């Protein structure tokens, strides 16, 4: 079951948007125009796009993903998506 989490900071709701981790589907990340980067102090990689979450959600809907949940965690907005 392919699930995907995307997130953004509430103060950055116009982007960038985190769209995946180092184990995400490379083809999907390429389709989103995501760039893989490592933030200083983190021991993991994340994929980011400069698009706002609304644009990312539109692109993911076109790829067959549906939002199954959304929440705010501190100052972070998180969407959980699933593709049948």
From TrEMBL:
User: According to the lineage, what is the superkingdom?
Assistant: Eukaryota
Q: Which InterPro entries match?
A: GFRP_sf, GTP_CycHdrlase_I_reg
Per UniProt, subcellular location reads as: Cytoplasm, Cytosol; Nucleus membrane
Q: Which UniProt keywords apply?
A: Cytoplasm, Membrane, Nucleus
Q: Main site of residence?
A: cytoplasm
Q: What GO CC annotations are associated with the protein?
A: cytoplasm; cytosol; dendrite; melanosome; nuclear membrane; nucleoplasm; nucleus
Record has Nucleus as a keyword: yes
- Please give the PANTHER family that the UniProt record associates with this protein: GTP CYCLOHYDROLASE 1 FEEDBACK REGULATORY PROTEIN (PTHR16852)
Q: What does this protein do?
A: Mediates tetrahydrobiopterin inhibition of GTP cyclohydrolase 1. This inhibition is reversed by L-phenylalanine.
**Protein name per Swiss-Prot or TrEMBL:** GTP cyclohydrolase 1 feedback regulatory protein
Species of origin reads: Ornithorhynchus anatinus (Duckbill platypus)
Lineage here is: Eukaryota, Metazoa, Chordata, Craniata, Vertebrata
């Amino acid at each position: 079951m392919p699930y995907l989490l995307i997130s953004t900071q509430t103060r950055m709701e116009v982007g960038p948007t985190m769209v995946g981790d180092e184990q995400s589907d490379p083809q999907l990340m390429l389709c989103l125009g995501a760039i893989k980067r490592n933030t200083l102090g983190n021991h993991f990689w994340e994929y980011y796009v400069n698009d706002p979450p609304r644009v990312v959600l539109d692109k993911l809907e076109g790829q067959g993903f549906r939002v199954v949940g959304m929440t705010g965690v501190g100052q972070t907005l998180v969407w959980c998506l699933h593709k049948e």
